[in-house]
Amino acid sequence: MTITPPGRPTRCVIDHRALRWNLKQLRAQVGPRVKILSMVKANAYGHGAVAVAKTLASAGSDAFGVATVEEGIELRQARIKQPILVVAGTYVEQLPELLQHRLTPVLHEIATLKALDQRLQQLKRTMAVEIEVDTGMGRIGFRGSEIDAWLPVLARLKAVKLQGVFSHFSDAESANEPYTKKQLNDFNRVLERLRAAKIIHRASHMAKSAAIVTEPNAHLSMVRPGLALYGMYAAPGLRKQIELRPVLSWKTAIIQLKQVPAGTPIGYNRTFVTKKKTLIATLPLGYADGYRRLFSNRAQVLVRGQRAPVVGRVSMDLTTIDVTDIKNVQQGDEVVLLGRQRSGIIGADELASWANTISYEIFTSIGARVPRVHNFI
Predict the structure, then answer these.
(1) Which distant-in-sequence residues (6+ apart) come within 8 Å of 38 by Cβ?
(2) Taking the CA of residue 22 as centre, how many other CA atoms within 13 Å lie in the half-sphere pointing to its CB?
(3) Residue whose C-alpha is closest to residue 169's, from 178, 156, 161
(4) What is the CATH number of the domain that holds 276?
(5) Is residue 9 assigned to a domain?
(6) How far apart are alpha carbons 81 and 200 in whole angstroms?
(7) Residues 268 and 208 in one domain
(8) Which residue, 81, 79, 33, 82, is CA-closest to 62?
(9) Integer Rg of the chain from CA
(10) Contact 225, 200 (CB under 8 A)
(11) Which of 9, 3, 81, 86 is nearest to 40 (CA)?
(12) Same domain for 53 and 185?
């Protein structure tokens, strides 16, 4: 049952049944022996990290991935007991928080690795960590081609205990991509060197959402789904290989209807002027909610199952749409910005195309003042 908070009608509805379904489909892809680390960074891609993590934990997620220590602490305070990997940077100054909340940091370079080991020795503590290997993403991590420089450092660690090793695909959205194959081969060579040096680690992982489907050889001991958990496909071709269900829908309601004559300018800078008598509906949301200014005069919404265009500039708190062609429209009618309504659907990829971006940014840009209403049934 979904309970919508009273008052302003703008909200995101999170379907936890779809969330559980998606995890089940991913589990079927990798089998029972491969662990699943669910990525819930950036507030679970805008879906609500605590509620999402609780559902995934009860549905069998083996671990969780976050970007920052603060995100990890939030999960621990919500009594998430599974391992939590902090992937986007380790700072020695945050060592007390990492220890207190049993968070696993990711190390990307030698200086921080040495400093962390030294500080832990001073405290007479040990800590499990993971390292990221750069096999061709080029952002962050120990370069696989420079293993001769950093492998001896790993061998000399005393207080830092290597728990896992991972890398990140640059793409992998379709099968048999040469660059993806090269990255996987390079990573496997790193793993072979670690084994030869008798540097023990329990986890190795590389496959994100797309590679879970397209690169079974990359499943290794664990996979890291992100976008797929939330019902989105990293590439259109993946729809034929796995059935995912969208988890988030974004809704509001008409706050005012106004009939205006031809020649009426709508919104800031008069970027839209009516060409005929037009019925304008105003919606109580804007770019402060994450409904992008780039949607101005480009996006569409669903009203009574039909599409209505956004007209005029999206402003900070209000957006206007043209509902002239929608019969029996009324103030208070539900408006779907993202999701299904009757036979109509507006997907995250389509919404992203109107803003020249990707679905990841659409989800993570939905503002904090938009309530997430969780439907657990």
Answers:
(1) 23, 53, 56, 61, 63, 64, 65, 225, 229
(2) 26
(3) 178
(4) 2.40.37.10
(5) no
(6) 24
(7) no
(8) 82
(9) 24
(10) no
(11) 86
(12) yes
**Three-class DSSP category at 281:** strand
Q: E strand or H helix at 143, and its extent?
A: strand 142-143
Q: Which among 14, 23, 6 is positioned nearest to 59, based on CA atoms?
A: 23
Q: Which residues pair with 40 in a beta bridge?
A: none
User: Which residues are tagged catalytic?
Assistant: 41, 268
Q: How many domains does the chain have?
A: 2
- Measured CA to CA, the distance from residue 106 to residue 81 in angstroms comes to 19
Written as six digits, the tokens of 149 are 């420089």
Domain extent at residue 68: 16-232
Tens digit of pLDDT at every position of the chain (377 positions)? 456 668 899 999 999 999 999 999 999 999 999 999 999 999 999 999 999 999 999 999 999 999 999 999 999 999 999 999 999 989 999 999 999 999 999 999 999 999 999 999 999 999 999 999 999 999 999 999 999 999 999 999 999 999 999 999 998 787 778 999 999 999 999 999 999 999 999 999 999 999 999 999 999 999 999 999 999 998 888 899 999 999 999 999 999 999 999 999 999 999 999 999 999 999 999 999 999 999 999 999 999 999 999 999 999 999 999 999 999 999 999 999 999 999 999 999 999 999 999 999 999 999 999 999 999 98
Do 225 and 351 belong to one domain?
no
Strand 11-15 to 35-39 pairing? unpaired
pTM for this prediction: 0.95
144, HSE (Cβ side, Cα atoms, 13 Å) = 24
Residues 188 and 320 in one domain: no
Q: How, if at all, do strands 104-107 and 127-134 pair? A: parallel
Closest CA to 231 of 21, 77, 43, 34: 21
- Pairing relationship of beta strands 203-205 and 160-167 according to DSSP bridges: parallel
In a domain, 238, yes or no: no
Do both 143 and 25 map to the same domain?
A: yes
